[in-house]
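Entry for the shared binder. Reason: the reviewer on the internal report wants the predicted structure included alongside the sequence.
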Amino acid sequence: MNAFDLSALRLGAGLLAFAALTAPAVAAPEPPLLAAEPPLVLAGRVDGVVPAGAGVATLRDGALVLLDADGRASGGCRGGAAALASGPRRDATALSREEVLGEAGFSPEDVSPEAEELLDDEGIEPRARRAPVNATAGAPRALSLAATNDAAWLGTVDGLWRFDARDGSCVPAALAGQEIALVAARGATVVALVDVTVWRSRDTGTTFDVAAVLTSPAHALALAGDETAFVSDEDGVVEIGPAHGFRRRLEGRVDALVACGPDVAALADDGVHRLDLGGGELLVGPRPAARALACASDGLVAAGIGLWTSPDGATWREEPCTLGRSFSGVAWAAGFAWLAGEDGLLRVRPGGAQEPLVVSTPEPRARHPVDGTHPPAWAGLLPRVAVAFDGWTASTGVAGWRLWVLLTVSLGRRWQRTTTENLEDVR
């Protein structure tokens, strides 16, 4: 470092010190209002979620758990590995059923196998023993899930099983002895994937026949129209239907498929594609950081690294309440996005209840209550760090990833009251 550099460094330090001494005294900035934390509806790892009537059907630890529109467990199909054990009985001073479930992170209405096993271990008789419930013991471990308004279909390690929402029965349906990797249902059509074989039923699962044999194993499935299946394998997407038979619709890796009306949305490596039954294909927009897709009431929702919403698949908005969280599945029901992941099932209403951060200043001398929902006042003075990925670079003898780090520091600026109408003023 030469003399000029040292002089510039001393000058900069002096200016900063002068600014700190002469800056007018201001009140400590109030913290921003943070996005609400989405509620946990079902504890424990959830591997899949699909709409089912007014609520959702979930795949939890290899078993089916049904939830109504309010997130209360309403039935299920218990796997054989989750059979109830006989635990010791507790005395009259024991906690209530609701207290035991609440302390363990379950909903008070949870009738899942794990909740029943917990109650049995604590000496509390589950509701399943006091009155009939929609649960049946002995079903094989489920790997895939589909649902209609009156039934849920489980693809298990030993065939296809059907849960009837009307009487609570859960019985084998077809393809015994085969491992069902994927299943989809729409009206009277049921499609099941066994390795590279596509099985199809046109009579609500009464009989099945082979619809097609793929060139590689499948990892995504959707039903469009009356009985047309779209299947994603290692080479892209194929269409299997009565009108055009078997035909290749899209090349390249596709991780998720969902049928919204007459069209199918495909989550591909190069973006979001729209496929229609007439043979049309259109790349409509970029791919969000997601691995699962679902149809919403007015567009699409996607889940992966956070929750993303889009009116058309062309533009995407990330919901702030799920920033930094990872999800494996998503469904839309009762005006909510239901997110499945390692930590359980979350229920999020996009927009409204979880808006972006809105800066707010209370009336003079008013203070936020100390209730643990707001960060301390000094938190607003902390620097903000943003990291942006700028792609792979290579030159003679040098190659690597390029990252930009942006450090933002607030120096004495008082935060202004802002509403959603003028939020752009503080961005």
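Summary line for the report: The chain is about 10% helix and 40% strand.
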